[in-house]
Amino acid sequence: MASAASGAAPVSIPHLLARNVAQHGSKAAYREKEFGIWQSWTWSEAAAEIDALALGLLEMGANIGDHIAVSGRNRPALYWAMVAAQKIGCIPVPLYQEAAVEEIAYALEHSGARFAVVGDQEQVDKLTDASTDKITLEHIIYLDGRGLRRYDHNVMTSYADVQERGRASSRKAEMQARTDARTYDDTCVMLYTSGTTGRPKGVVLSNRNVIETSKNSSEFDHLRAGDEVLAYLPMAWVGDFIFSLGQAMWTGFCVNCPESADTMLTDLREIGPTYFFAPPRVFETQLTTVMIRMEDASKIKKRLFDHYMAIARRVGPDLLDGKPVGLMDRIRYGLGNLLIYGPLKNTLGLSRVRVGYTAGEAIGPEIFDFYRSLGINLKQLYGQTEATVFITQQPDGEVRSDTVGVPSPGVELRISDNGEVFYRSSGTFVEYYKNPESTASTKDPEGWVATGDAGFIEESTGHLRIIDRAKDVGKMADGAMFAPKYVENKLKFYPNILEAVVFGAGRDRCTAFINIDLTAVGNWAERNNIAYSSYQELSQHPQVLELVASHVNDVNASIADDPMLAGCQIHRFLVLHKELDADDGEMTRSRKVRRAVVGDKFADLIAALYDGSPEIYTETEVTYEDGRKGAIKATLVICDAVVTARRRMAAE
Amino acid sequence: MKDTVAPYTTADGRQIGDVLMDMRGITLRFGGVEAIKDISFDIREGEIRAIIGPNGAGKSSMLNVISGFYNPQDGEVWFRGAKRPPMKPYQVARQGIARTFQNIALFDGMSVLDNIMTGRLTHMKSGLLAQAVWKGRAEREEVENRAVVERIIDFLEIQAIRKTPVGRLPYGLKKRVELARALAAEPKLLLLDEPMAGMNVEEKEDMSRFILDVNDEFGTTIALIEHDMGVVMDLSDRVVVMDYGRKIGDGTPSEVRNNQEVIDAYLGVAHD
């Protein structure tokens, strides 16, 4: 795909839109399930909707360079709002729809947005609650007017009304002039990082960043106009921006929006995307559901499933990688595909997936292999907002669960002396908005960006392997390497363990907090006739503790194999009485553990892990979804784990 | 006790109109038992009207009188300015009165969608034969009715369970489906018999929000029976209080709350 219809290379998303209208005008560009039916818009129709909104915003007084906040669940109209903003020289700033009021207030104040386009009453309420004198927000444009009838309509207007105003506008030429004036180095979008530490930062990405990245990554995976994606991940996340807007605009594929968050899996099945992206959590949940249902299936079905899954595990990944496989195995796999894999993929909504990605967190090897053995081309990539997603990704045929792949096209990699990964690419962000110090400390004058992750490049394959967050990699009291994330990920690969936090920096041994997965452990409890009335009770049940201990012991045994990390084995652990939660500040909105917050909040529990006490009484403050606070009281049992002797000592 | 207040606007900006339903001197007896004794009250257009009272006060009986399930021995029921002759429940339904039940009365084996579609029955005009052939008007009607139902599904946020058999749903969702079915009839007056019984706090909050939204968005007049005093006081514009089949209070929530007779009925005093 070479250039725009006009002949000049497209330098912004609105330019790409114009090109798509010219090339695929009557093909579906967006779909959304509403009122039980998939409504669809062609590229021409979408462009008309975008124009109407852009003109409406122009009439309302949006100036060149204004930030326009966008918030809500994935809906075509909100994607259009981002493009409409760009058409009139404004910069879209998507916000996490689940963000708390303070987080929204911070983003509004920091970005200085005057307009916001949002989904529904919930978002309007948050924006209204967030308003202080420092916030410059003037007008809210909402999509779904339900419940808003008696709000102050001097400061809000419905999306349809703004479009109406736009359709009546005579300033089309002015809009076109603003669109044409965009250059390759103008800002395309500003995205707030979720911020594992401190305040979120506004990452400024230029048109060059977004378009070059979209082009390179689309070519890498041979994405094409006929592809289908399901847009269900937060719009404020850089991944969604690139997949559902950048790549969609570059290749002209169709973006499908689910009816609601709850119907995502049903909608996934109905659409059957060809290009699919999900964090490991989604794959884990799907696999857990499948396994739980198989436990309840009849004996014959269960045996059939087990038999063919064993074959799939043996030959499936090789078939996918194009490696030689014997004729008999091919026949067996073919039969399995007919009886088990095909129907299963169909149920999961993954029948048509040509390219699937998982990223954000490490995925368990068992989970990863499960999907690949079914013939789903699931791959891993490694990236961050500052890189416009892509740093490394796995090419077809070179997919393994323990690496994150080779550098993406146009990306240079460098490993510093202390093991931190640095990159430089055409996707490297412009700056952190209003934060030159952070920009300078992250990106050096030559354009190299520190990822904050420690890793190394495998010499034999050229693949990158990530060990841990560089700042989390520490030393234990005896100087041995301490890589908590590495251990936590190994723990989290067990379906029963939802989350784990490992401590040990500067200490003589490692300890851990464990969160059980209520779905998996609850089901296990039901099958084993274990009665419980609450999460808290289940978490402290002796048999549950035994179950978790067996997982911890297995992890210890596997860590012991690695001479570098053998010191990270877990000596003592406890199972937490509550799930770590973003509402309590223990995790980020993208569900990454905030180590420092957890360390502070549960200082008493950590102390108990190290002072040898058999149990500890604790009170924890919790925040409910509606913002009210309460306290949970619990006595937690502290368990000892079996530590495996270092193998190399045995060899001596 | 007849009040003749002109239409007005509430503090939160809702329009309260003329009297929609007027109950005049209703008395209902079952053999020797007087379930309702000479009760009069009215329900105005656009308002949320609560009927409260201790167990056995006659609240459900009152609702059954409104819905035409019982015909009172004495008294008159006036609906939209006309005196209503004794009617069968289906005739009342056609007049634009829909209800939910204290004990959920849904078709367990049918999907949520089909259950809600049954609420459109009063709006279907094509005959049995036409329905069976499913051509022309029957097909057109089905499509129109489905569109109405889908809007309600969207409104009550139950898209994810559209195809789920009702029997498999948890209690709180069943209650919501029942509300959906009642709404599908596009009623003028919606009767809710203990819409929040047996719910936890979060479910109650959801349900309260839906009731307020229904009233606001569709302008539906709502009469509800509820035990949770907090909910009643927050939701309703006016409250009728019943005790032993008699009306012992009628007015705004704050008026009712300060009514001595009501306090006695709820806190309990010695009856002679």
UniProtKB/TrEMBL annotation, chain A:
<dbReference type="InterPro" id="IPR042099">
    <property type="entry name" value="ANL_N_sf"/>
</dbReference>
<dbReference type="Pfam" id="PF00501">
    <property type="entry name" value="AMP-binding"/>
</dbReference>
<dbReference type="GO" id="GO:0005524">
    <property type="term" value="F:ATP binding"/>
</dbReference>
<keyword id="KW-0547">Nucleotide-binding</keyword>
<dbReference type="InterPro" id="IPR020845">
    <property type="entry name" value="AMP-binding_CS"/>
</dbReference>
<keyword id="KW-0067">ATP-binding</keyword>
<dbReference type="Pfam" id="PF23562">
    <property type="entry name" value="AMP-binding_C_3"/>
</dbReference>
<dbReference type="GO" id="GO:0004467">
    <property type="term" value="F:long-chain fatty acid-CoA ligase activity"/>
</dbReference>
<dbReference type="GO" id="GO:0016020">
    <property type="term" value="C:membrane"/>
</dbReference>
<protein>
    <submittedName>
        <fullName>Long-chain acyl-CoA synthetase</fullName>
    </submittedName>
</protein>
<feature type="domain" description="AMP-dependent synthetase/ligase">
    <location>
        <begin position="18"/>
        <end position="424"/>
    </location>
</feature>
<dbReference type="InterPro" id="IPR000873">
    <property type="entry name" value="AMP-dep_synth/lig_dom"/>
</dbReference>
UniProtKB/TrEMBL annotation, chain B:
<dbReference type="InterPro" id="IPR027417">
    <property type="entry name" value="P-loop_NTPase"/>
</dbReference>
<dbReference type="InterPro" id="IPR003593">
    <property type="entry name" value="AAA+_ATPase"/>
</dbReference>
<keyword id="KW-0813">Transport</keyword>
<dbReference type="InterPro" id="IPR032823">
    <property type="entry name" value="BCA_ABC_TP_C"/>
</dbReference>
<feature type="domain" description="ABC transporter">
    <location>
        <begin position="21"/>
        <end position="269"/>
    </location>
</feature>
<keyword id="KW-0547">Nucleotide-binding</keyword>
<dbReference type="Pfam" id="PF00005">
    <property type="entry name" value="ABC_tran"/>
</dbReference>
<protein>
    <submittedName>
        <fullName>Amino acid/amide ABC transporter ATP-binding protein 1, HAAT family</fullName>
    </submittedName>
</protein>
<dbReference type="GO" id="GO:0005524">
    <property type="term" value="F:ATP binding"/>
</dbReference>
<dbReference type="InterPro" id="IPR051120">
    <property type="entry name" value="ABC_AA/LPS_Transport"/>
</dbReference>
<dbReference type="GO" id="GO:0016887">
    <property type="term" value="F:ATP hydrolysis activity"/>
</dbReference>
<dbReference type="Pfam" id="PF12399">
    <property type="entry name" value="BCA_ABC_TP_C"/>
</dbReference>
<dbReference type="InterPro" id="IPR003439">
    <property type="entry name" value="ABC_transporter-like_ATP-bd"/>
</dbReference>
<dbReference type="GO" id="GO:0005886">
    <property type="term" value="C:plasma membrane"/>
</dbReference>
<keyword id="KW-0067">ATP-binding</keyword>
